[in-house]
Amino acid sequence: MVNAEHVRLCGEHCRSFLAPHVDKDWQQRPDDIDMSVAELVAHVARAILWYAIDLSAGAPDLVAADPQVKADESNHEILRALATSVHIRALVVHAAPESAREFHPFGTADPSGFAAMSCDEMLIHTNDIASALSQTFDPPNDLVEAVLNRLFPWVRPVADPWQQLCGQTEESRCMTGRACPSGNGTAPHSTNGTPRRLREHLHSSLDEELGGETDGFHVDALIVAVETVGEYFCPHAG
Fold this sequence. Notes:
By secondary structure, this protein is mainly α. The protein has helices spanning 4-18, 37-57, 75-95, 111-132, 141-151, 161-175, 207-210, 218-228.
């Protein structure tokens, strides 16, 4: 099970990788993504913060909330925003009961499922950033395996779980219309020729056990989590 500690550790690994490059040109872009390094870091920070809000709100989607992270601030400040978003996310996951459910367009998930998606978001985009900076990002195998086992439980273990996670996530990107490894933007198909849904590749959804809409743990747990921030050290960009 992926939990708040995995989210915290993943955020720290990504922050530690990015911090030594904070004085470099973050307007560089990976070859296969039309976003700069600064935009990618801001995107991840926003996504992680959004996940925290969604877990607190439950289902259905809280359409009035739209968190923003500015990509035009300094690199140091954007990295600080990422560290803060991760910290809040970990606190919310820690406070959430197992019965809590979180909205996502591809299916409602439990805290563990979206904790794993948070880690996947951070790991994959940090790898994208490493590519733009001509660096190599190599996260620890135990963290990668935890995410891989939660999101893609049907895959067979291999010697290089990091490359396996990258490959599985790339296939999932195809499902959402993003660039596929083949470069043709075509989503994989099932044996009967119909496009497969993302949640058949990204095992965070628990729709089959829910039977309809469910409530999250609402704002009470978010208040508890935010109040707890002062009791912990909140990492800042180095």
